[in-house]
């Protein structure tokens, strides 16, 4: 009997020990000593315990803090034991993103050990001069000319999406189908393979994609550990993605590299890096770097675009009047430009505004972060930053703040016709902002055009009356899923 009490006593002792350490050590006094208003943290978890234990979404916890300190310019918080400055003022956020970029040029995820996980040695995790060089290499992929060249690949996937839905009219689990669409778009535009996810939901590529994005408690704990305790992450020999996911994508990309070397040329992201490998002498573009940076498309572009499409369809299903006007515009543009082509999609102004409004309300990432890369005093404040101090910008809270976006709970795409409406932060801002924004717009608008030109979307019996974010996912998702009714017109 006493034997079964051992683990319990052990756990209680550990909690008492950690709590004692928390209250006696100076860590929690960090903001107090700097005379910055702060939110009292809990031992071990800081201010985000409920998110870590999946009781509340990260978005909800950020909202709580934002509402509580809304009239301040910033507040000190703790992510686990790490002190972080949460910025509450849009102008200060812009200073960090742009004016003071030289002092805040890293993202916090840059703490990933890419020697252990080479697939993650990509532009997102790079720092300093390596980041700058890689960013210059990938940026031309997203130029207007390259986008136009890639558009036929996107358009083919959009037609497949429409056909899949026309063949399964009625209630649809939207995020699942949208993820199959963006998997096919990313597979063909990033490295020229056809993942075949729309035609076959059991395709190996899609199975691996789903595995990569799986959210369960173990994954949440693992990611939290990687961000806030990288040494423990390494000590426990944890990895960000399951080994079979790493093996699958590494060998898929390596196969494409071999094909390209035998003479096949394409207009995609991987080809651009391959050209750099052949021509650039100053930057050593190894095969491993081409592989990891092609994988970035999967990491950064696939789920963000598919959740945007899903939320946009949800909003349009709930607002038939806006949906009808969007459809009218889509049909008009397709007629004027002779089908679903680059010119037609880039002319769809209201549809693009519906996407921007969706990103305002439900940005896939509710916040962005920066690490201090050079000691400084933040412009316009007397706040001193030391190397590797951490900043958090709760972009969704700002985008739902009535001071910046009047009537913020209303889905109103036309608010962007007003020149006074601020730009959204859903893609971040400044030199470290998302390079894939234009690509994402093309993929999302093309998908919407293909669907809405032939179908109407409406709430179904399982559509939740409002969006409540899933506490198990950092990327914003609806807790009850998104189910909608698709009807042919
Ligand atoms: C709706 C879709 C998307 C959203 C909302 C989104 C959002 C974001 C955000 C918030 C960041 C961080 C920016 C910052 O900290 O200032 C980011 C970074 C990034 N995104 Fe996207 N993204 C989307 C699609 C894409 C696509 C399609 C790609 C294609 C490759 C992509 C590639 C990247 C990369 C490479 C970075 C890191 C940039 C760097 O560190 O220099 N994203 N994205």
From TrEMBL:
Gene (name only): CYP6AW1
Family annotation (Gene3D superfamilies): Cytochrome P450 (1.10.630.10)
Residues where heme binds: 434
Family: Belongs to the cytochrome P450 family.
Matches recorded under InterPro entries: Cyt_P450, Cyt_P450_CS, Cyt_P450_E_grp-I, Cyt_P450_sf, Insect_CytP450_Detox
Enzyme Commission code: 1.14.14.1
A molecular function (GO) term: iron ion binding
The protein's name: unspecific monooxygenase
Membrane-protein topology: Peripheral membrane protein
GO cellular component: endoplasmic reticulum membrane
Origin species: Cydia pomonella (Codling moth)
Protein location: Endoplasmic reticulum membrane; Microsome membrane
Keywords: Endoplasmic reticulum, Heme, Iron, Membrane, Metal-binding, Microsome, Monooxygenase, Oxidoreductase
Function: May be involved in the metabolism of insect hormones and in the breakdown of synthetic insecticides.
Catalytic activity: an organic molecule + reduced [NADPH--hemoprotein reductase] + O2 = an alcohol + oxidized [NADPH--hemoprotein reductase] + H2O + H(+)
Catalytic EC class: oxidoreductase
Cofactor(s) essential for the protein: heme
Principal place of residence: endoplasmic reticulum
Coiled coil: none
Entry keyword annotation includes Thylakoid: no
